[in-house]
Amino acid sequence: MATYQLNTSSDLIENPSPRCACMLVLDTSASMFGQPIRELNAGVQEFIASIKEDEMAACSVELGVITAGGRVTEQLPFTTAMNISQCRQFNATGLTPLGSAMKLALDRLEERTAAYRKAGVAYYQPWLVVISDGVPTDDWQAVAARARSLAQQRKMVVMPVGVEEADLDALGAFSTRPAKRLDGLKFREFFLWLSASMSRVSASASTTAQIKLPPTDGWDSI
Amino acid sequence: MALWGRVVTDALGKQRKLGKRLARGGEGEIFALQGRPDVIVKWYYPEVLDKRGDELHRKVEAMRELRDSDMTQDVCWPLIRVFDDRHRWIGFAMYRARGVKMGFLAHALLYERYFPNLDRRQIVGYLIRFIEIVQQLHRAGICIGDYNLNNVYCVPGSGQVTLIDCDSYQLRVAGTFYPCPVGSPDMTPKEHQGVAFRDIVRNPQSEAFSLAIVLFKCLMLGRHPYDIVGGDDPVRNLRRGNFAYGRGQRDVPEGAWYELWSELPEAIRDMFVTTFTEGANVPSRRATLAQWHAALETYRQQMDQGECARRLVKPGGPPSSGGRHVG
Questions:
Q1: What residues does the VWFA domain cover (chain A) (predicted)?
Q2: Are B108 and A75 an interchain contact pair (Cβ–Cβ within 8 Å)?
């Protein structure tokens, strides 16, 4: 699990763009084996590629990835999209420690926004996207309450997405907005939507204004 | 919306075909016009037309009355009414701006890709031209209101500047007031914060404040005047006049930013300091457009005479090679 450390502190100094932190918490448990994990991997790759196509967004969006599959793994510490060169494929294995994964995600987001403030970098509301096809298999209620409260204070946008048989009630407990169910395995459509949303956020001249997001009908189902 | 190839008509019923979609905005989409590479069409979204189509139509008509030949050259002004195949008004045609968004110029990591060999003299040249266009609009009683670096196009290698998205401008025609219904808090002076944009009446002093932020962001390669180390968000700092540079020099962001700032002539630095500290609260303390114009002209002469450096200190190198891998 080698992570090549970049001098990220210099990035906060040299790049004047306001930042939009986007943390992906991905369920990579055994039930995702096969087609689902392949589609998820392809979706993440496409997400990175399409953000990099929009240069303003590539300077603005900082992506972090944490997986919950058997154990919690920080696959990518927050990195500005323009500095991400490639993304390894995730494997599906083990149970779903989503509670611990979300706790790590919230800790990392808090550290990152503190670093922005220290470096004098303006930032948009960070995004926390959580995608799961099941139920968390560890303790999750306390961290769900923490995430929900941050979303309520509008310190964070928490976007829960359920795949196939996911427990939408449990996922929805992490946010003030209800969990959406992915239509089939439309991970690519979801990530293209996410990338378009990130482009809209980073094109906005204001770090405090509300942004109108693109419609979600390309990937969600009722 | 698949509008490519759709036929639109002008007021005389002459038909034209739309080309490719060029941009999507908050209120509508911009299309090329087949056979006229110099002309583009703004087509408002159906829901926008349903809600306030009449109001938009009246405003665009008022703008067409105001046009003069200078203005239409420097600003993508509505020139021709456009109707759909059922003769409903859906937007207007205008000339297409050439160049690159000023947002790419005002960015330490991106400017070199779009503006090779950019130096301070060229930046100052674009800014002088930008101020002249705004002054020309002000003389016609028009305020920009929504200052946004992505609505200013600069042609690399020349001094040419063109403004786009002008249907949001504030104007007064024949006794009717048309507000600028959009904006962003980071560019809006304190006295207009917290008010719905459509209820604001912009004036020369509010314009001068927002314009000063544009000047600062360009001369400082993307820094906002109210980004502050350890401080609050830019809007809170703006409301408090919490400007880090200049007198006292507390909390300037790390890096070469202070160097960029200190290379500006003292007269210009003083104008920024006054505008962003006392001027945040007291509109009459803000430097006027005429004062900015004169100061930047002097600065350009000083660079021509070798009294000031033309070179840009570069706060960032190119993106680090190698990058970071996941896994």
A1: 21-201
A2: no
Convert the pLDDT of each residue in A77-117 to its tens digit.
999 999 998 778 999 999 999 999 999 999 999 999 999 98
Helices of type H across A67-120: 98-119
Residue of B108, B319, B325 lying closest to A86 (CB–CB)? B325
| A73 neighbors A66 (Cβ within 8 angstroms) | yes
Q: Structure tokens of B220?
A: 């400082």
User: What's the CATH class of domain A16-221?
Assistant: alpha beta
Length of chain A measured in residues:
222
- The alpha carbons of chain A give a radius of gyration, in whole angstroms, of 16
- Residue-range domains of chain B with CATH: 20-95 (3.30.200.20), 100-304 (1.10.510.10)
In chain A, domain spans: 16-221
Of the pLDDT bands very low, low, confident and very high (cuts 50, 70, 90), residue B320 is very low
Query: Are the CB atoms for B41 and B31 separated by under 8 Å?
Result: yes
B220 min Cα distance to partner chain A (Å): 9
Check: CB of residue A27 under 8 Å from CB of residue A136.
no
Q: How far is CA A143 from CA A26, A137, B201, B320, in A?
A: 16, 13, 46, 36
pTM of the predicted structure, to 2 decimals: 0.90
pLDDT, tens only, B50-60: 999 999 999 99
Contact check, Cβ <8 Å, B327/A59: no
